[in-house]
Amino acid sequence: MSEIRRTDAVLLLVALVWGSSYLSAQTATAALPVLLVLFARYALSALTCLGVIASRKRGARRWTRAELRAGVPLGVTQAAVLLVETYGVTHTSAANAGLIISLTIVLTPLLDRSGHRGALPVSFFAATGVCVLAVGLLMSGNGFHTPRLGDLLMLGAALIRAGHVALVGRFTTGRAIRPLHLTTVQTLVGTALFLPATAHDLPTLAHAAPATWAQLIYLALFCSVFAFLAQTWAVQRTSASRASLLLGTEPVWAVAVGIALGGEHLTALTGLGAALMVAGTYWGQAVERAHRSAPQRRRPSPHTSPHPLDKESECPKAHTTPTTT
Hints:
This protein is mainly alpha-helical. The longest helix has 27 residues, at 3-29. The chain is 71% helix and 0% strand. Helix 4 packs antiparallel against helix 12, helix 5 (104-111) runs antiparallel to helix 11 (240-247) and helix 8 (179-198) crosses helix 10. The protein has helices at 3-29, 34-54, 65-90, 94-100, 104-111, 122-141, 149-172, 179-198, 202-206, 210-235, 240-247, 250-261, 268-293.
């Protein structure tokens, strides 16, 4: 598997995990307060990351200044994303939450200034337009009509997540930052932010049912530790815009999880929206990859004439017929 395809596969797996997170978060917040769920998610994630780091050699345990400088602000923005997302899930359906958050794929390229040369081509935004149309069809297929408080919160979460993804690319691309150490800083920041507001509810957490703990562990180990590590690792090897497109398949997985585990029904509009989402995502991915990898052309100065040896490039090339084997 090539490096590009491996990175894409990791991002798609993150999208699948995040697509399933809305149903898990909705289930957990039905039994515990939102802030307590977020504290438990961050605390379990931080303990896991610290345990992994402690198992390594002594020299690999230390954080660099670059990792701390990037991890603190990214921890704040990530906590903001999860805070608004989780409150949004409690006031809308898990399917709507997964669908609305996918608007991140439209917002991220507007904020992303790294990973590509100049402005993205119009075809990229045409691809994101297809994704927006897909979101509309998916919403219609699930009975979305009048925006509710949860839907508006998810729109805010999409904007914050777009800024977070762009910042991940800006703070980590081209720098010697280890994803595990960066993720650990983010989880510690999130734990510190939510601890003061949940300290009086810790006895409630200790008496939570095993099913609730199972949801919390899944949210912490898979939707947080794995997803944060994988996202940082992948964004370091691609651009934030392309990562956002692949993560844009998240609503498809959210619908699939809703059908398989939540008892939802697949309508014709939902199926069409899912197909358009996948098509738009891969179209935009191909456009962004070609734009990022294209060699930068030097424009001749208006005051200089072309070199005599360059005139050959101005002549039409002979037509050749491709051969087949």
